[in-house]
């Protein structure tokens, strides 16, 4: 397969992928397409599935390429991949996949993510993490920590991530205004409707934010 064929195969799941992205992943040693005598790249079906794995791990788990490379090496050695469960809200606002966890302790997050407690403390100080009760973080803390740690590998200072919290809080305020009339009602059905609506509108806010960032990033390269 040529690069154009690979892009066509991946575009439904990864519409933002570009030829330069494929070349970059090759430079990082994550995929090794064959070269024709004329120097053109040729990808096998196995190469495409390898690319799909890399892109999925970046999108769904926010993993840095170094960690993804280690996972690929493990897969090459015959170690089975841990399944990725859906994490987004469905169209009706209900969360898909497994139930949302009640929260995490700092110790459990350190063990699960491999991020040092000092980094978690800095994220707490910056306001990106919030305690659900003393010594425990809310149910989304793992996602925040993994994404923040990946950004630091690109040289982003944790203090500069405060703007992400401020932007998220503004979006939450928009959602809160929309569901406020339903929350003021005491009926059980109204509470369920408010919960579903909040999830759906929150998901739309996330999609809009993602689209705007992708649009801006696309303008950074020729």
From TrEMBL:
Pfam families with a match to the protein in the record: MerR_1
Residue ranges of every copy of the HTH merR-type domain listed in the record = 17-74
Native organism is: Actinotalea soli
Family annotation (InterPro entries): DNA-bd_dom_put_sf, MerR-type_HTH_dom, MerR_fam
GO function term, MF aspect, one: DNA-binding transcription factor activity
Q: What is this protein called?
A: MerR family transcriptional regulator
Q: Does the keyword DNA-binding apply?
A: yes
Q: What keyword terms does UniProt attach to this protein?
A: DNA-binding
């Amino acid at each position: 397969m040529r690069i154009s064929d690979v892009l066509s195969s991946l575009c439904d799941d990864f519409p933002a992928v570009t030829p330069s992205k494929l070349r970059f992943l090759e430079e990082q040693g994550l995929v090794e397409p064959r070269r024709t005598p004329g120097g053109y790249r040729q990808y096998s079906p196995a190469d495409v599935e390898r690319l799909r794995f890399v892109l999925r791990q970046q999108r769904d788990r926010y993993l840095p390429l170094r960690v993804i490379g280690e996972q690929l090496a493990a897969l090459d050695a015959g170690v089975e991949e841990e399944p990725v469960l859906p994490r987004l809200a469905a169209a009706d606002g209900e969360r898909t996949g497994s139930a949302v966890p009640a929260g995490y302790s700092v110790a459990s997050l350190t063990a699960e993510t491999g991020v040092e407690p000092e980094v978690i403390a800095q994220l707490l100080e910056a306001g990106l993490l919030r305690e659900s009760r003393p010594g425990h973080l809310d149910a989304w803390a793992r996602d925040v920590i993994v994404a923040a740690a990946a950004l630091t590998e690109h040289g982003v200072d944790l203090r500069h991530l405060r703007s992400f919290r401020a932007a998220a809080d503004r979006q939450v305020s928009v959602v809160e205004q929309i569901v406020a009339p339903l929350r003021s009602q005491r009926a059980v059905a109204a509470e369920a409707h408010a919960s579903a609506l909040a999830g759906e509108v929150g998901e739309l806010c996330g999609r809009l934010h993602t689209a705007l960032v992708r649009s801006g990033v696309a303008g950074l390269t020729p």
